[in-house]
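Worked Example 4.2. Consider the chain below.
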Amino acid sequence: MAKPSTNVAPDPMVARLRAALGQRAFTEQKMFGGTCFMINGNMLIGTSKRGLLVRVGKDAHAAAAALPHASTMEMGGRPMEGYIRVAPEGTTTDADLAGWLDRALAFVDTLPAKVKAKPPNGST
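Applying the procedure from the previous section yields the following structure tokens:
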């Protein structure tokens, strides 16, 4: 008997974000049930079933949360200041997506690069 397929259709937002980031150096990491995009080891923006997760920083949080289709991200029922969830309706056009990406870049570009910890001596 054949096993049911567990393949999930690719998230089109991932491709849109890759294209929008263009030549900028970034990495991708599975987080929060979606794909997060990182710059210099810092989380920039991510996808989820509920929309886009945008890191804007605490200073820009209130202004970003007041925009259409935006709300404060919550984790475990607790608000995460500096992180905005954008409903899918808020990223339908490339201009909408670019605006959210620009907000995230404005904040993350101010952060120092994170350096990966070296493994302890004797580790392989």
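Residues 94-108 form the longest helix (15 residues). Residues 12 and 121 are 42 Å apart (CA to CA). Compare this with Example 4.1 before moving on.
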